[in-house]
Prior knowledge:
Elements: E1 16-19, E2 26-28, E3 42-44, E4 52-54, E5 61-64
Protein name: Putative Zn-finger protein
InterPro entries: Znf_CHCC
Organism: Rehaibacterium terrae
Amino acid sequence: MTQTDSSLRQANAERVYEVSRADLPLSCPMPSMALWNSHPRVYLPIEAEDGRSTCPYCGAQYVLKD
């Protein structure tokens, strides 16, 4: 099922995003974000000890919440 543009969040609008294990594998921008005004999708490792990852394109920080 595809989402309409009106149901998508703006990509790269925040500096820190909290994500859950349901969001894995993690990508920036996330699937729930519009892609037309963003950088190419990149997959980010976040399962490390600290549960954090930073996008190399836009600098958005992702924090894994259990």
